[in-house]
Amino acid sequence: MKEKSKLEQYCLAHKKEFKKALKLIQKYDRIAIFRHIMPDFDALGTQMGLATWIKDNFPQKEVRVLGDNHVTFTPRLYPEMDNLSEEWFKEPFLAIIVDVSSAKRIADPRFKKGKYKLVIDHHPGDEHIARSLIIRDVDAAAAAEPVVAMLSSFKDYQMSVESASYFYTALVGDSGRFQYSSTTSLTFEIAEYLLKAGINISEIYQNMYQKKVDDLYVTAYVLNNFHLSPKGHVAYYTLDLSTQERLKITTERGKENVNLFSNIEGIDAWCSITEDKKEPCWRISIRSKQKDISGVAIQWGGGGHAQASGAKIKDLSELDAFIASLDDLF
Q1: C-beta separation of 291 from 277 below 8 A
Q2: For the chain: N or C, fewer Cβ within 10 A?
Q3: Element holding 193 (H helix, E strand)
Q4: Is the Cβ–Cβ distance between 294 and 255 less than 8 Å?
Q5: Distances (CA, A) of 139 to 43, 106, 123, 130, 188
């Protein structure tokens, strides 16, 4: 007998949960899909991929996507989010929540009004959400991974090119283009499944990482103003509000150049440190070659994955202590 693939084994292990999830999708005629604030490729790609899959296979259902738009991904990569009045939420609907484990980070609080909640995520967490089915795989490279695995197990339904393209952006984005340690053979089987749907990966990569000429000035600033930690293990750059204004970027875009340092010998971790006037605080995106930096992120008011996490400091008086805590890992 032929040995089952990793994807087939995964679907068998989660058969009960996946079956319940399908019944929920089949049951509700009105579905709203939510994800975390300040969305990334995984949040938007998984959200739009799932919304498109449901619309393709259940055209009679009303499917809505909610949350904040991205400053550059919308509408270049993903459609704008739906703007719904309070009236819409008065009728029963299924709330599907992807790529977020903390209720306070869900972009639209009206998920609470859902008659039932289906949560599919890959972040560590044990927060309980009332009336919910939670499918969580902390070993997955992206939230798209368990979602696509689940959809692949529904043999009576189809994966369109459009839906698969959205999911592929999610998978690529959160796996660091398949470079992070969270990438497994299952990740590649998920990618293969999406490829078989007929997607054009050259076009997808071009659209994901396309930049404008003005972006070169931001990159030039980062390269001319980065710092190395006292022990030399950490590279980082800071973007205060006046610099953001001069470079014509928003706070959300501050982390776009963080991976410039990913292949530099001797540098084990790298960070963008961007001032945010809304909270106010300085938002930090952390990346690592090998070691798990999520513990440091948690220590500094954030969290995330082993090689890609987020944190924050109140002001730059805390910067040296933060960098020292990261330096000490190595």
Answers
A1: no
A2: N
A3: helix 185-195
A4: no
A5: 17, 21, 9, 24, 14
Q: Name the pairing type of β-strands 227-228 and 132-136.
A: unpaired
Question: Could you tell me the pTM of the whole model?
Answer: 0.90
Both tokens assigned to 6: 């990793």
Question: CA gyration radius for the chain?
Answer: 20
Long-range contacts at 79-82 (CB < 8 A, ≥ 24 apart): 79/48
For residues 272 and 294, give the distance between their C-alpha atoms in angstroms, rounded to a whole number: 15
Q: In the structure encoding, which two tokens stand for residue 218, read together?
A: 């931001």
153-208 residue pLDDT tens? 999 999 999 999 999 999 999 999 999 989 999 999 999 999 999 999 999 999 99
Q: Give phi and psi for 22, each to the nearest 5.
A: -65, -40
CB-CB neighbours of 244 under 10 Å: 19
One DSSP character per residue, 99-155 reads S---GGGBS-GGGGG-SEEEEEE-S------SSEEEEE-TT-SSTHHHHHHHHHT-T
41-71 per-position pLDDT tens digit: 999 999 999 999 999 999 999 999 999 999 8
